[in-house]
Design a protein that fits this description.
Blueprint (H helix, E strand, L loop, with lengths): L11 E2 L9 E2 L7 E2 L2 E2 H5 L1 E4 H6 L21 H19 L3 E5 H4 L6 H22 L2 E6 L18 H20 L4 E4 L5 E2 L7 H21 L5 E4 L9 E2 L4 H10 L6 E6 H6 L4 H10 L3 E5 L18 H13 L8 E3 L12 H26 L1 H9 L6 H7 L5 H11 L9 H9 L3
The protein binds D-xylose (XLS) and nickel (II) ion (2 copies).
């Protein structure tokens, strides 16, 4: 079999002192942190679309990156070669999971039947490669947003024909996910949203989305899909008003339409910041509701307002995120999917390795430090103490719902003057600084 990345050998852990750009300095798969190995904590996944499909095009010019498997003689051969390249990369980087959209795995055919046939063929090859290399499918999803037919949405399209077309696509994507033993199935509502209320029945569109997701859930459950369905919130881009704005919005939607048991959230760093939140906020909101499903790891650019999908490198952002994840007891059957792309001018074959090494090391370091920070427990103790007036006496009664507003008001009147309690934010930030 030809090598697609011949200049790179399997990336090894060499430790923090290493200056080798093709070695890990923090990610040491079998190192135990707390109760699990790094590989078990972090469950890194490679995003098929960016890593093996993203060619660096932008609104001002075409792609700058080409892939050797594009030269295959027909669509099925090209898809199989692309899989060979992808699995060579994943084995060399040491990622144990990957994620795809249907039309990253194969080129979309002229008809739904042709696309489905290609998917089945690619899945056969993917299954062999997964087994041979010990790599699992973290999640599959359907690209129901790129093709012009989805310009007004997929499940929320005002035209029923488009909704039915999307259903055929999603059904095949679920079938393929099941065939490959996928751990989760994702819905990112690419164009599920709207641009103007002047031409939109917002109420009906949301109801259609719920109906569609309910049907997908029922189909998956009938067809042996045991994993979670994940919704990936994003506030804007491509539509002005996305229905899955942020964690709170999606949780409200899942509760409204009775989908909390089968669905969880896939939280992306850059989507959190576009929504005006921090990444750790979005994670914590999902964790509180018991629906922290998985992560799309990247970072945005602080100087602009769109999804730049850069590889994650910010130590503070990741430390705070790992703190929430550890408090949650991990990410279960989810993982850390690098939904990130190398820059348009990163045109060497090695650049994809540098990018993943950087992201994996940044998460590994954040894991080590978040674990140590929580073992020390300074922040957790402070937070506990800050709320301790609710652990006893009337505070406790309040939490338990044993006080009326009248009783609470009487307590307020009787207690007289009291001291202010500092929130000590700067002190807390200094604690964090010790672990960055
Ligand atoms: C786009 C999304 C997308 C999803 C999968 O912003 O992040 O890549 O993760 O459809
Ligand atoms: Ni994403
Ligand atoms: Ni994104």
């Amino acid at each position: 079999m030809p090598q697609y990345f011949p200049t790179v050998k399997k990336v090894q852990y060499e430790g923090p002192e290493s200056k080798d750009p093709l070695a890990f300095r923090y990610y040491d798969a079998d190192r135990v942190v707390g109760d699990k190995t790094m590989a078990e904590h972090l469950r890194f996944a490679v995003a098929y679309w960016h890593s093996f499909g993203g060619k660096g095009g932008d609104p001002f010019g075409p792609g700058t990156i080409s892939f050797p498997w594009e030269k295959g003689r027909d669509a099925k051969t090209r898809a199989r070669k692309k899989l060979d390249g992808a699995f060579e990369f994943m084995e060399k980087i040491g990622a144990r999971f990957y994620c795809w959209h249907d039309y990253d795995l194969v080129e979309e055919g002229k008809t739904l039947a042709e696309s489905e046939d290609r998917m089945q063929d690619a899945a056969k090859h993917a299954k062999e490669l997964q087994k041979a290399k010990g790599i699992d499918l973290l999640w599959g999803t359907s690209n129901a947003f790129s093709n012009p037919r989805f310009m007004n949405g997929a499940a929320t399209n005002p035209d029923f024909q488009v909704v039915a077309h999307a259903a055929a696509q999603v059904k095949t994507a679920i079938d393929t996910t099941v065939a490959l033993g996928g751990h989760n199935y994702v819905f990112w509502g690419g164009r599920e949203g709207y641009m103007s209320l002047l031409n939109t029945d917002l109420k009906r569109e949301r109801e259609h989305m719920a109906m569609f997701l309910t049907m997908a859930r029922d189909y998956g459950r009938k067809n042996k899909f045991k994993g979670k369905f994940l919704i990936e919130p994003k506030p804007m881009e491509p539509t002005k008003h996305q229905y899955d704005y942020d964690s709170e919005t999606v949780i409200g939607f899942l509760r409204e339409f009775n989908l909390m048991d089968d669905f969880a959230l896939n939280i992306e760093v850059n989507h959190a910041t576009l929504a005006g939140h921090t990444f750790d906020h979005e994670l914590q909101v999902a964790a509180n509701a018991g629906v922290l499903g998985s992560i799309d790891a990247n970072r945005g650019d602080y100087q602009n307002g769109w999804d730049t999908d850069q590889f994650p490198t910010d130590p503070t952002e990741l430390l705070l995120a790992m703190r929430v994840i550890l408090k949650n007891g991990g990410i279960g059957a989810g993982g850390i999917n690098f939904d990130a792309k190398i820059r348009r001018n990163s045109t060497d074959r090695e650049d994809l390795f540098y990018a993943h090494i950087g992201g994996m090391d940044a998460f590994a370091r954040a894991l080590i430090n978040a674990h140590a920070m929580m073992e020390e427990g300074t922040l957790e103790d402070f937070v506990k103490q800050r709320y301790s007036s609710f652990d006893k006496g009337n505070g406790k009664k309040f939490e338990e719902g044993k006080l009326s507003l009248k009783q609470l008001a009487n307590i307020g009147k009787k207690q007289g003057a009291f001291d202010l309690q500092s929130g000590r934010q700067e002190w807390a930030e200094n604690v964090v600084s010790r672990w960055v």
